[in-house]
């Protein structure tokens, strides 16, 4: 960082530590874009990223008096955000495990617990049912009927690029639906077997 920028940052931190809300807004706006990219690389979740960043800046504001002893603010901020993101990942993993345990107990019969693949396929079918009609039709023709994109385009009277886009959107929706709604990790091998 150049000397002028370093001086400006120290002045900004001094003002924040004194309770200057305008300076805090400048600090937030300066670091928010890069910090959100940094945190998203760890969490891969926009809602989780937003929550972590809000939490980090809330903590900075609440302990603003200590900013005067921070030598290098950017590394300090990055480490704080990284630690929060890793804690969030651990929490999400625990929730996934709890959800998987709950699902196993829900699907458990007197005889035995069904194969996890049956549960995954059931969840995927549920997600497919939530797709918009055109996307669902294109997705099923591609993945279940095994038609080529050009064949789907001809059959439905749409362009090949539209077919590709529908398949991409459907695949993303199904993956997100399963992850967000059930907090279940769908192994790539199983995902590939279903989607491709």
From TrEMBL:
Keywords: Sigma factor, Transcription, Transcription regulation
A Gene Ontology BP annotation from the UniProt entry: DNA-templated transcription initiation
Gene3D superfamilies: 1.10.1740.10, Winged helix-like DNA-binding domain superfamily/Winged helix DNA-binding domain
GO terms, molecular function: DNA binding; sigma factor activity
Keyword hit for Transcription regulation: yes
All residue ranges annotated as the RNA polymerase sigma factor 70 region 4 type domain in the record: 123-170
UniProt record similarity statement: Belongs to the sigma-70 factor family. ECF subfamily.
Protein name: Sigma-70 family RNA polymerase sigma factor
């Amino acid at each position: 960082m150049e000397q002028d920028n370093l001086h400006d940052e120290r002045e900004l931190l001094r003002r924040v530590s004194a309770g200057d809300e305008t300076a805090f807004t400048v600090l937030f706006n300066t670091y928010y874009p890069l910090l959100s990219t940094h945190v998203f690389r760890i969490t891969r979740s926009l809602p989780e990223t937003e929550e972590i960043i809000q939490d980090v800046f809330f903590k900075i504001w609440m302990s603003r008096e200590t900013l005067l002893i921070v030598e290098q603010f950017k590394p300090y901020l990055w480490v704080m955000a990284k630690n929060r993101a890793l804690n969030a990942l651990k929490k999400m993993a625990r929730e996934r495990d709890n959800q998987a345990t709950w699902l196993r107990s829900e699907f458990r019969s007197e005889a035995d617990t069904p194969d996890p693949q049956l549960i995954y396929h059931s969840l995927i079918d549920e997600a497919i049912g939530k797709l918009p009609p055109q996307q669902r039709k294109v997705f099923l023709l591609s993945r279940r009927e095994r038609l080529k994109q050009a064949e789907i385009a001809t059959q439905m009277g749409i362009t090949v690029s539209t077919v590709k886009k529908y398949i991409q959107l459907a695949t993303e929706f199904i993956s997100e639906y399963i992850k967000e709604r059930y907090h279940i990790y769908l192994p790539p091998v199983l995902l590939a077997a279903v989607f491709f």
